Amino acid sequence: MKGQSFFHYLGVLFGVSQPETQTTPREREALAKYASGASTVVEIGVFEGVNTVILSKAMSKDGKTFGIDPFFKGGLGVCYHKKITETHLKRNKVRNLVSLVEKYSFDAVSDIPATVDFIFIDGDHSWEGISKDWPLYSDKLKAGGIMALHDTSTIDADGGYVQDSVRYYNEVIRHDDRFEWVENVDRMNILRRK
Question: The whole model's pTM is what?
Answer without folding.
Answer: 0.96
